[in-house]
């Protein structure tokens, strides 16, 4: 019995190799799991469930098929697809989770999250996040015509790329104090997240106890998955 975790697939119509790799993973690898958790940024940018891109329907169908094979899929929003909503969840049969969730897995308590909220040194991003997570702003955005939403998302992506190009790399990583605080608050020995695109398994000193933090890799050139079973926690990369 194994539970799979993935994040930062960043699916978009312009990257067909990533889509093909992800669909192959859902068909051939994911059926071996007991459950699949997607920890955010499944899509490169999500501007509303009413976006008629064929890619979205194709991914919903593939996740739906996995569910029908008896493998439930759970989703935590990322900073690119925080607007993914009930309609896509219904079509894909994915269960939407809150931004942090504690799982009891084979005798371990594991905190799962996207990872962006741990980057507390990135003050500019945290301010931006607060604005775009405001329910009223989201509601107004979703009322705009699709074409305007696409233009705003493109501006945000360009703004983000420009601002990231002169941000210090350490600012864009997790803050160690935030990691320890979250793990202690939730009483967990493991944390699994994505977002930073720095795949690794780190030890975390939690006072007297030793905890661990698994960071998922982004699906740029290859796939990345964390497999949790009674035997342990493994971080694996594989070709598309
Ligand atoms: O995403 P990535 O890897 O480039 O960088 C992230 C942080 N950036 C973001 C922004 C997203 O990329 C934008 C995604 C938009 C898709 C959905 C649109 C829905 C809109 C809904 C509105 C209600 O998350 C980046 C972090 C980095 O991770 C590492 O953690 O540093 O943070 C920033 O870049 C924030 C900047 O400091 C400020 C962002 C500039 C945005 C410019 C806004 C222009 C808007 C124009 C609107 C008319
Ligand atoms: Mn992210």
Automatic annotation (TrEMBL):
<feature type="binding site">
    <location>
        <position position="114"/>
    </location>
    <ligand>
        <name>Mn(2+) 2</name>
    </ligand>
</feature>
<dbReference type="InterPro" id="IPR043461">
    <property type="entry name" value="LpxH-like"/>
</dbReference>
<protein>
    <recommendedName>
        <fullName>UDP-2,3-diacylglucosamine hydrolase</fullName>
        <ecNumber>3.6.1.54</ecNumber>
    </recommendedName>
</protein>
<dbReference type="Pfam" id="PF00149">
    <property type="entry name" value="Metallophos"/>
</dbReference>
<feature type="binding site">
    <location>
        <position position="122"/>
    </location>
    <ligand>
        <name>substrate</name>
    </ligand>
</feature>
<dbReference type="GO" id="GO:0005737">
    <property type="term" value="C:cytoplasm"/>
</dbReference>
<comment type="pathway">
    <text>Glycolipid biosynthesis; lipid IV(A) biosynthesis; lipid IV(A) from (3R)-3-hydroxytetradecanoyl-[acyl-carrier-protein] and UDP-N-acetyl-alpha-D-glucosamine: step 4/6.</text>
</comment>
<keyword id="KW-0464">Manganese</keyword>
<feature type="binding site">
    <location>
        <position position="79"/>
    </location>
    <ligand>
        <name>Mn(2+) 2</name>
    </ligand>
</feature>
<feature type="binding site">
    <location>
        <position position="8"/>
    </location>
    <ligand>
        <name>Mn(2+) 1</name>
    </ligand>
</feature>
<feature type="binding site">
    <location>
        <position position="160"/>
    </location>
    <ligand>
        <name>substrate</name>
    </ligand>
</feature>
<dbReference type="InterPro" id="IPR029052">
    <property type="entry name" value="Metallo-depent_PP-like"/>
</dbReference>
<keyword id="KW-0378">Hydrolase</keyword>
<feature type="binding site">
    <location>
        <position position="10"/>
    </location>
    <ligand>
        <name>Mn(2+) 1</name>
    </ligand>
</feature>
<dbReference type="GO" id="GO:0019897">
    <property type="term" value="C:extrinsic component of plasma membrane"/>
</dbReference>
<dbReference type="GO" id="GO:0009245">
    <property type="term" value="P:lipid A biosynthetic process"/>
</dbReference>
<keyword id="KW-0441">Lipid A biosynthesis</keyword>
<comment type="function">
    <text>Hydrolyzes the pyrophosphate bond of UDP-2,3-diacylglucosamine to yield 2,3-diacylglucosamine 1-phosphate (lipid X) and UMP by catalyzing the attack of water at the alpha-P atom. Involved in the biosynthesis of lipid A, a phosphorylated glycolipid that anchors the lipopolysaccharide to the outer membrane of the cell.</text>
</comment>
<feature type="binding site">
    <location>
        <position position="41"/>
    </location>
    <ligand>
        <name>Mn(2+) 1</name>
    </ligand>
</feature>
<dbReference type="InterPro" id="IPR004843">
    <property type="entry name" value="Calcineurin-like_PHP"/>
</dbReference>
<feature type="binding site">
    <location>
        <position position="195"/>
    </location>
    <ligand>
        <name>substrate</name>
    </ligand>
</feature>
<keyword id="KW-0479">Metal-binding</keyword>
<keyword id="KW-1003">Cell membrane</keyword>
<comment type="similarity">
    <text>Belongs to the LpxH family.</text>
</comment>
<feature type="domain" description="Calcineurin-like phosphoesterase">
    <location>
        <begin position="1"/>
        <end position="199"/>
    </location>
</feature>
<keyword id="KW-0444">Lipid biosynthesis</keyword>
<dbReference type="GO" id="GO:0030145">
    <property type="term" value="F:manganese ion binding"/>
</dbReference>
<feature type="binding site">
    <location>
        <position position="164"/>
    </location>
    <ligand>
        <name>substrate</name>
    </ligand>
</feature>
<feature type="binding site">
    <location>
        <position position="167"/>
    </location>
    <ligand>
        <name>substrate</name>
    </ligand>
</feature>
<keyword id="KW-0997">Cell inner membrane</keyword>
<feature type="binding site">
    <location>
        <position position="41"/>
    </location>
    <ligand>
        <name>Mn(2+) 2</name>
    </ligand>
</feature>
<dbReference type="GO" id="GO:0008758">
    <property type="term" value="F:UDP-2,3-diacylglucosamine hydrolase activity"/>
</dbReference>
<keyword id="KW-0443">Lipid metabolism</keyword>
<feature type="binding site">
    <location>
        <position position="197"/>
    </location>
    <ligand>
        <name>Mn(2+) 1</name>
    </ligand>
</feature>
<feature type="binding site">
    <location>
        <position position="195"/>
    </location>
    <ligand>
        <name>Mn(2+) 2</name>
    </ligand>
</feature>
<dbReference type="InterPro" id="IPR010138">
    <property type="entry name" value="UDP-diacylglucosamine_Hdrlase"/>
</dbReference>
<keyword id="KW-0472">Membrane</keyword>
<feature type="binding site">
    <location>
        <begin position="79"/>
        <end position="80"/>
    </location>
    <ligand>
        <name>substrate</name>
    </ligand>
</feature>
């Amino acid at each position: 019995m194994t539970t799979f975790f993935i994040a930062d697939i960043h699916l978009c119509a312009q990257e067909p190799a990533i889509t093909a790799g992800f669909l192959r993973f859902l068909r051939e690898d994911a059926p071996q799991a007991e459950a699949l958790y997607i920890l955010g940024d499944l899509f490169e940018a999500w501007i509303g469930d009413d976006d008629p891109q064929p890619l979205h329907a194709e991914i919903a169908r593939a996740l739906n098929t996995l569910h029908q094979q008896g493998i439930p899929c759970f989703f935590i929003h990322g900073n690119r697809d925080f607007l993914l909503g009930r309609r896509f969840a219904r079509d894909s049969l994915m269960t939407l989770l809150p931004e942090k969730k504690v799982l009891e897995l084979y005798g371990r308590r594991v905190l799962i999250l996207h990872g962006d909220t741990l980057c507390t040194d990135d003050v500019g991003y945290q301010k931006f996040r607060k604005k775009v997570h405001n329910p009223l702003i989201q509601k107004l955005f979703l009322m705009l015509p699709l074409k305007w939403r696409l233009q705003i998302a493109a501006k945000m992506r360009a703004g983000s790329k420009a601002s990231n190009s002169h941000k210090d790399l350490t600012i864009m990583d997790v803050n160690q104090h935030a990691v320890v605080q979250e793990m202690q608050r939730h009483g967990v020995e493991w944390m699994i997240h994505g977002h930073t695109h720095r795949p690794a398994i780190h030890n975390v000193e939690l006072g007297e106890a030793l905890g661990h933090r698994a960071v998922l890799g982004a699906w740029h050139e290859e796939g990345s998955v964390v497999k949790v079973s009674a035997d342990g926690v493994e971080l694996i990369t594989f070709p598309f």
